[in-house]
Amino acid sequence: MPANFGSDNSSGVHPLIIEALAKASMGSAPAYGADALTKKVESRLASLFECEVTALLVSTGTAANCIGLATLTSSFSGIYAHAEAHIANDESTAPELYTGGARLFIVGGDDAKPDLEELAQKIDVSGARGVHSVQPAVISISNLTELGARLSPDEIAAYSELAKNRGMKLFMDGARFANAVAGGSESPADLTWRSGVDALSFGATKNGAMAAEALVFFNPDEAILAEFHRKRGGHLWSKHRYLAAQFDAYLEGDLWLELATASNTSMARLRDGISLSNNASILAGGDGNELFIAMEEDVAEGLLQRGHMFYAWPSLPKAYRLVTSFTTTTAEIDDFIEDLNS
Question: Quick check: pTM over 0.90?
Fold first, then answer.
């Protein structure tokens, strides 16, 4: 059975979320987030993170990231992230559009974790000339990172300390936050506000939802402008209950963790198989559901011709990215490994 390791965006919608959408479609409900289901989800997110939060639901990760960044920064400020960051490579100029022109600064670092020393130097240099300079505003990190690594609470706290010492905010891109939580023993609170995160884009689309992301602010006073940015950006749904229905089912019975654990478990099996192969080597990732491997072009082409799906990763040498999801099967993994070794 050919494997689709192209993206967890390729996976379908979990049946319980489909069921929740159908149920939400019965009858009528107030529009624009004034419905009871949205209020329920906001309460559930506060319980999940063990603190008072302001949560805005949107349908895309780009919207969640960019609305969050626009709320925490200004048009004459700077956002600092790793060179592999999604906001630097995969969201076109949406961050600049939503922020009104805030400048994005990038740094290096192993496993797509921003190097703290380089980050501090870039922040200090870029903001050194007062009114003539870009004003440092936000450090943006990802968990999982874009190279499939998991950030620990201590690592997150180090970024927070750097940000707070310079009067900045810490934003977390959590498109695969579920995989990060499922990959360790710490709570969602431990991996966010307890470690100094100011706002999080909490992804669901890659992990069983149809189209749903939650932008979570851990200090409600900092979220006042977020609703205006969401409306201005065209992401305030009129039939908002359909976003809420997805998140309600996603959180019910910890379905979100169940699905993330399934995708992480599949990745562990895939990683173990590849680690024994003479035709590929592991470059990065594997903490959650992303793995980056090196293999010769003819090996990769042979796998693609057999119907397996994955993508080249141009920033790493001879690299290819493999992503598992909650729909990945053992048969897919085993057939891929067999074909890799043939």
Answer: yes
Let me know: does 210 contact 20? Beta carbons within 8 Å. no
The DSSP string of 37-49 is HHHHHHHHHHHHH
Establish whether the linkage from the previous residue to 144 is cis, with ω within 30° of 0.
yes
Q: Quick one: pLDDT at residue 1?
A: 83
Contact 291, 322 (CB under 8 A): yes
In the chain, what are the domains? 15-253 (3.40.640.10), 255-341 (3.90.1150.10)
Q: What are residue 297's phi and psi, to 5 degrees?
A: -60, -40
Q: Cα(329)–Cα(310) distance, rounded to whole angstroms?
A: 16
Tell me the β-bridge partners of 107: 82
Annotate 249-316 with DSSP letters as a single string: HHHGGGHHHHHHHHHHHHHHHHHHHHHT-SS-EEEEE-SSSEEEEE--HHHHHHHHHTT-B-EE-TTS
- C-alpha 143/C-alpha 64 separation (Å) is 15
Q: Give per-residue pLDDT as tens, 110-160.
A: 999 999 999 999 999 998 898 989 999 999 999 999 999 999 999 999 999
Amino acid at 43: S
Residue 141: exposed, middle, or buried by beta-carbon count in 10 A (0-12, 13-18, 19+)? buried
Q: Is 140 helix (H, G, I), strand (E, B) or coil?
A: strand
CA–CA dist 182, 77 (Å, integer): 34
Sign of the Cα torsion 257, 87, 324, 152 reads: negative
Q: Which of 100, 58, 93, 78 is CA-nearest to residue 201?
A: 58
Backbone angles phi, psi at 21, to 5 degrees: -65, -40
3-state secondary structure of 131: helix
The answer to whether the CB of 114 falls within 8 A of the CB of 81 is: yes
DSSP 226: H
- Return the structure tokens found at 66: 């960019």
Find the mean pLDDT for residues 277-300.
Answer: 97
Cα three-residue angle 262-147-105, rounded to 5 degrees: 135
